[in-house]
Structure formats: structure tokens, C-alpha cells
TrEMBL record:
TM helices/strands, residue ranges: none
Catalytic reaction list: ATP + H2O = ADP + phosphate + H(+); Couples ATP hydrolysis with the unwinding of duplex DNA by translocating in the 3'-5' direction
Protein name: DNA 3'-5' helicase
Database matches in InterPro entries: DExx_box_DNA_helicase_dom_sf (IPR013986), DNA_helicase_UvrD-like_C (IPR014017), DNA_helicase_UvrD/REP (IPR000212), P-loop_NTPase (IPR027417), UvrD-like_ATP-bd (IPR014016)
Domain UvrD-like helicase ATP-binding: 2-294
PROSITE patterns, A to Z: UVRD_HELICASE_ATP_BIND, UVRD_HELICASE_CTER
Keywords per UniProt: ATP-binding, Helicase, Hydrolase, Isomerase, Nucleotide-binding
GO cellular component: a single term: cytosol
Family note: Belongs to the helicase family. UvrD subfamily.
Residues engaged in binding ATP: A23, G24, A25, G26, T27, G28, K29, T30
């Protein structure tokens, strides 16, 4: 307790029922959640009756591990942390009858699009009438369910950028009936194929808890305390899940409204602002002292929030020294940026006594960091990536998992199509016909016997044997994965020949180890789909399919800002803070989106402890200034780039010279004489 300040201590030792810890970046929210769990366990609460909920598996693991290392292991063994989705998935598996969804297969967003493509193919007339991509239809469906908005309202905000004029109203009226048909068909498809998408997991649990006293009684006995991190990112659907626990358990929620960056997923930071009203009998504890960053770093972060029209009422004060001013580095290209960063890191590593893990690189997208990754590989700087495509979402893994999925749930059409078309010579049309026959066979025959006949020929016997072999191994998930991989590996190596050896092959031993943690195929598939960052031997290996560049525990982290919540590092590079990126050119006509982009930048800036290095692109700055000069000093334009009015007294600005690794040469080439050096005597 002596490591907590007075307010943190009050929160940790809170003796009332529900508490909101409202705090700024780096003020110890995570530390306080960890402290709270340890305190409760220390005071005799059964660790198995505490549930920690976070937004990433990584954050959940970190909190649980830190609680475990803070007190005796015998009392913390049952402590659980999970994301909202994986918690619901666990509840469904743990209480199969209560939630009635145990024989369902969880499908991920890629699969949702796959299912929607099938629908769009079947409902060509409606699909043509709406002119929206399957991905957009899925987004609309998910947004409406997460925000509990009507279809009309959802269309207005997702497709028509919130416009309310007559033309927009008319257009919404016209397309809505067709979208309704497509979305209903998607719902039917889920029901027929026994699919649960991610949102269904929450809905199934939330609905049951809301209407069923028995369900509440059962869960109340299991969960005394619910600890929720990043409360500002919860959306109305997640709120529906939390709400029944107000009467069943004690809520301990921590949040920061200035770090709310998930409104595109429906996050509603009113869950923080209106906490006291929504949770009767609750109290609020404010934390305001920042322990992470030096004051100069906070000055830039504070300045950024002050320029917002929203009043966050947050002025972070450092508990540390003034430190060094942040650096604003102007670069002429991404390659220069990459070279500059890698040299700084190598310099810090060799001369500055810093480890690679002391460095965190933040970018809006993983895609932007490709040149940086290339330079890191070239210069042998070990790194891991957070964000971007996840391990279980990568194509080669999904190919193998498709076989496991059809064994687990033979009604799984999406997996059948993926599995069948994986094999050379089976195209989508043949595969669709096989799938129809497979599904109708399920009603009266044994599929393992019938599969060779349905597919026919050599393919039929080969795939039939493979299906039966994996079916036999169902009870041993690791063996099932091993067998599936071994049988498919030749074709995998061929399909992904471009980067098989360098990137993909090494993922399969990891998949096997991961499978070993699960008791049944169904559990592996539903958990594995959700859980992308499982800790294996203490190393977070599954954040991305490209694990680490070396077998090295000390590595730089390259993260998207959205995946960097809760992270901190001695030195942070925030990449490409240029016009049209902060805020994004896509968001300029929507004030809410601009403000969300400001919070994204705020999250990035507040990750740094001692060194903050912001890079930006010289040519976009010049282009931006030219636009301002051409149009006159237009306030609206200047405010469309967050750093435009940054007081230069807050940073050190520097231009990076062109990187010329070759050195200067003379202008014209000399001749060479190839007869030299040979003595014919
Ligand atoms: N009372 C304290 N004394 C010393 N260090 C502290 C104290 N409270 C927090 N810290 C340190 O400050 C840093 C930030 O804490 P923490 O990660 O818990 O903050 P946070 O509020 O969750 O941050 P964010 O929301 O920005 O991710 C950590 O390194 C933590 O160890």
C-alpha cells in the first residue's frame, strides 16, 4: 500500500458497492485495478469470484500476471481476466444449458463477410439495389446492435455521415427495405448454420441475464466483483451486459474520457460521464497525478487537449521532473524516417544503455510501418508488431482451422467452402454443390461414410480419409491440429510459396502448442478465434502472425495507436503526425471524428516516459502551407491539422537530411584494365 498515493489507496480499499475511478493518462489506473484485485484477495475474497474485464487479451493477461506476482500464488490461481467477448464465450461454454448456445461455432469478422457474400450472391436483386459491399452491410449490422440504434439511424450515421436533409431521408427510405431483407437473410443463415458472431456472444449472455432470474442467481454466486478497465470504451451492448451485475456484484470501473478512441465500434463515453446516474449508489474517485511522463511530455499532451472544443477538464501534472522537451522531426520520406528511427534506437542501445524493449513505435496503421520493418530486418533490430492482422486471422492458419471447424460443426458452410476450395481442382461452384449435399446428408447419414461419395473420385477418398482421421482425434486437440497440418502442409507450402519458409511455416508449431491448452475442438475454435494474444511461456507470441524477427525477448514494439492502450515505454516515436493524418483527411467533415482523432493522438503522446519523438512528412507540411497561402489565412484550414499551431517553445524541431549511405563518388567512371594482376611469365 505504501506505493499508492492517497487517492489510489482510497480506490483500492474502497468499502462501498460500486466505484468509478476517473483518471487521466498515466495516473495509475492499471496499477489501481491490480491493487484492487490483490487487496480483495488478500482480504479473503475467493480469486475465482473476481472477474477482470479488459479490451485486449494482452491487457487482461498483464493484469492477472501482475496480481499473481504481487501476492501468494495459492490464493490467486483462479483469478481470471478476459475481454468481454471471450468472457461471454467462456460463460456459454461453462453453462451450456443456461445459455443454450453450446453447439454453435463462433465466427470472426472475416467469416461474417464470407457469410454475407453468400447472401448477396443469393439475393442479387436486393444486393444490386443497395450498392453496398458485404463488408459495409456487416458493419451496419454490427454497429446497429452495438449502439442499439435503429436501422434508419445507423444508415444515417454509417452511410450518410449523419446528414438529415430531405434527399438523404429519401435515399434512406429507398434502400432500407432491401438492406432489411439482406440482414434478415444473414440472421437466418447464422441460425441454420449454427453460427455465433462476436456480437451474438454478448447478446446471448446479456439477454439471458436481463430476463432470467435463475440465470442471475447462478452467476451472482460465481461473480462477487467485476473489475472493468477502459470503461470509456464500453458501448451500449457491453453496457447491457454490465447492467445486470449492478444488483448481483460489486463494480469497480476505471476510465479516462480523453482516451475514448473506439466510437467507430459504438463506444459511448457517457458510460463514464453518466456513471453515477446509471449505477445507483455508486461513488467516483478521481486520480490526477501522472507518474509516467516527464512534465515537458505532458505539456504537449495537455496543449493538445486544450485545443479541443470539448472540455475534458484535464491538466496532467507530472510527479516526476521536467525532463527533455519532445522532438519534432521533419522527414522527407518514409525511408528517411525509418533510417532515422533505426539509428536512434541502435544509438540508444549501444551507447545509451537502453534495451530494445525501451522503445515503442506508434502508427495509425500497421501498413504505414512496412518500410520501417524492412529497415529493422536489414539492421537486425528485433521487433514485434501489435495490431494489424492477427495470428488466427491469417490465411494459412485459417486454412488448417477450416478442417477442424467442419469436424467440430459439419453445418459450418463457410468453413466447408474454405476447406474444399483449398484443394487444387475444387473451385467455388463445385464446392458449393458439395456443401449442399453435405448439409442434406447430415439429416440422415453418417457424414464420414458419405463424404467420399459426395466428392467422388480420388479427391473424395483423400478428403474423406482426412476428415475421418481428424474426427478420430477430436478428443485430443493438439493431435488433431498436428494431423490436419501434416496432411495439408504440402499444399500449404505450395499455396504460400512466396513467403512460406520466411514467415508462415513457423506459425504451425505455435498453433499446436496453443491447441494443447484446450480440452475440446469447440473450445479451441471459439476461444482461439477470439484470443489472439495468448501468453505462451511468458512471451506474447500470438499478437501477429509474424511472431518476432528473432528468437529474442528484447524487442522494439511497433504498434497501432489503437493497440497501444495501456502501453508505456522509455522512448516513444509517434509516426507521421502530418496534415491529413492527424486528423485524417476522411474525417474532416465530421467534428466528432476530428475529436476522436485528437484523442488518438493524445493516447499516442501519453505513452512516453522520458523521450517523445514525433515525426512528420515535410512535403505534406509544405503542401498544407501552400493551401493556406493560396486560400488566405483561413482558420478552418489551419485547425484541420492538429500541430499547426503547436507553440514551438514546447518542442525541439529538427529537419532530417537526406540519408546517403553510399558516400560521395567522383562524377565520371574511371576505366579499368582487366589484364592487370596477371603475370604471364
Ligand atoms: N503511486 C505511484 N507511485 C509511483 N509510480 C506510480 C504510481 N502510480 C502509478 N505509477 C506508475 O505510473 C505509470 C502509469 O501507471 P498506469 O499504467 O497504471 O497508468 P494508467 O492510468 O493505467 O495509464 P494509461 O491510461 O495512460 O494507460 C506506471 O509505470 C506505474 O507504475
Amino acid at each position: 500500500m505504501q506505493n499508492f498515493n492517497i487517492n489510489q489507496k482510497k480506490a483500492v480499499e474502497f468499502s462501498g458497492k460500486h466505484l468509478l475511478v476517473l483518471a487521466g493518462a498515466g495516473t495509475g489506473k492499471t496499477k489501481t485495478i491490480i491493487g484492487r484485485a490483490s487487496y480483495l484477495i488478500d482480504r479473503g475474497t475467493d480469486a475465482g469470484k473476481i472477474q477482470i474485464l479488459t479490451f485486449t487479451k494482452r491487457a487482461a493477461n498483464e493484469i492477472v500476471e501482475r496480481v499473481k506476482s504481487s501476492i501468494s500464488s495459492s490464493t490467486t490461481a483462479n483469478l481470471r481476466g478476459a475481454t468481454f467477448h471471450s468472457w461471454c464465450s467462456q460463460l456459454i461454454t461453462k453453462f451450456p444449458n443456461l445459455f443454450g448456445a453450446s453447439s454453435f461455432t463462433v465466427i470472426d469478422p472475416d467469416d461474417q463477410i464470407g457469410a454475407m457474400k453468400i447472401i448477396c450472391g443469393n439475393y442479387v436483386k436486393e444486393y444490386k439495389a443497395v450498392r453496398l459491399k458485404p463488408q459495409q452491410l456487416i458493419d451496419i449490422y454490427s454497429f446497429a446492435r452495438n449502439t442499439k440504434k435503429s436501422l434508419t439511424e445507423t444508415l444515417r450515421s454509417k452511410v450518410f455521415k449523419g446528414k438529415t436533409d430531405n434527399d438523404t431521408n429519401e435515399e434512406i427510405l429507398q434502400i432500407k427495405p432491401y438492406i432489411e431483407i439482406l440482414l434478415k437473410a444473414y440472421q437466418n443463415k447464422k441460425m441454420q448454420s449454427r453460427y455465433l458472431d462476436y456480437d451474438d456472444l454478448l447478446l446471448v449472455v446479456a439477454n439471458r441475464l436481463q430476463k432470467d432470474v435463475q440465470a442471475r442467481d447462478i452467476l451472482a454466486a460465481h461473480y462477487e466483483h467485476i473489475l472493468i478497465d477502459e470503461m470509456q470504451d464500453t458501448n451500449p451492448l457491453q453496457w447491457d451486459l454490465i447492467k445486470p451485475f449492478i444488483s448481483m456484484s460489486c463494480l469497480f470501473c476505471v476510465g479516462d474520457d480523453a482516451q475514448s478512441i473506439y466510437s467507430f465500434r459504438g463506444a459511448d463515453f457517457k458510460n463514464v460521464h453518466l456513471f453515477s446516474e446509471r449505477v445507483p449508489g455508486s461513488e467516483v474517485q478521481v486520480l490526477d497525478k501522472n507518474y509516467r511522463s516527464t512534465q515537458y511530455i505532458l505539456d504537449v499532451s495537455n496543449w493538445l487537449l486544450q485545443t479541443s472544443p470539448i472540455d475534458y477538464n484535464k491538466q496532467l501534472i507530472s510527479a516526476r521532473e521536467l525532463g527533455e522537451k519532445p522532438e519534432l522531426i521533419n522527414v522527407e520520406s518514409q525511408w528517411e524516417e525509418a533510417n532515422y528511427i533505426s539509428e536512434r534506437i541502435l544509438g540508444n542501445f549501444t551507447e545509451g544503455n537502453k534495451t530494445f524493449s525501451d522503445h515503442l513505435i506508434l502508427s495509425r496503421s500497421q501498413y504505414y510501418t512496412k518500410p520501417l520493418q524492412a529497415v529493422f530486418i536489414q539492421k537486425k533490430i528485433p521487433y514485434v508488431t501489435y495490431g494489424g492482422r492477427k495470428f488466427m486471422e491469417s490465411a494459412h492458419i485459417k486454412d488448417v482451422v477450416s478442417l477442424l471447424r467442419v469436424v467440430n460443426n459439419p453445418y459450418d458452410e463457410i468453413a466447408w467452402i474454405r476447406f474444399l476450395t483449398f484443394w487444387e481442382g475444387i473451385g467455388e461452384i463445385r464446392a458449393s454443390k458439395f456443401v449442399k449435399d453435405i448439409i442434406s446428408c447430415l439429416h440422415h447419414d453418417n457424414l464420414a461414410d458419405q463424404l467420399p461419395h459426395i466428392i467422388g473420385g480420388q479427391d473424395g477418398s483423400r478428403l474423406g480419409d482426412l476428415f475421418s482421421a481428424v474426427l478420430d482425434k477430436q478428443g485430443d486437440v493438439r493431435a488433431a491440429v498436428k494431423m490436419a497440418y501434416e496432411e495439408m502442409s504440402l499444399n500449404l507450402a505450395y499455396k504460400y510459396r512466396k513467403d512460406w519458409n520466411e514467415k508462415r511455416k513457423a506459425d504451425f508449431p505455435v498453433l499446436e502448442i496453443l491447441a494443447g491448452n484446450y480440452a475440446s475442438l469447440g473450445e479451441f475454435i471459439s476461444e482461439g478465434v477470439l484470443e489472439n494474444s495468448k501468453q505462451l511461456n511468458g512471451t506474447p507470441v500470438l499478437e501477429s502472425s509474424k511472431l518476432t524477427t528473432e528468437d529474442h525477448k528484447d524487442h522494439v514494439i511497433i504498434s497501432t495507436v489503437h493497440s497501444a492502450k495501456g502501453l508505456e515505454a522509455d522512448t516513444c516515436f509517434v509516426l507521421n503526425v502530418s496534415p491529413k493524418v492527424y486528423p485524417s483527411a476522411w474525417n474532416l467533415d465530421d467534428n466528432d471524428e476530428i475529436e476522436e482523432d485528437r484523442r488518438v493522438l493524445y493516447v499516442a503522446l501519453t505513452r512516453a516516459k522520458n523521450e517523445l519523438i514525433i515525426t512528420r512528412d515535410t512535403s505534406s507540411i509544405n503542401a498544407f502551407h501552400n493551401t493556406i497561402n493560396d486560400t488566405g489565412e483561413d482558420k478552418e484550414i489551419t485547425s484541420s491539422y492538429f500541430l499547426e499551431e503547436l507553440p514551438m517553445s514546447l518542442v525541439h524541431q529538427k529537419n532530417v537530411q537526406k540519408h546517403n549511405s553510399r558516400g560521395a563518388d567522383i562524377e565520371r567512371p574511371n576505366d579499368i584494365d582487366l589484364s592487370m594482376g596477371m603475370d604471364f611469365n
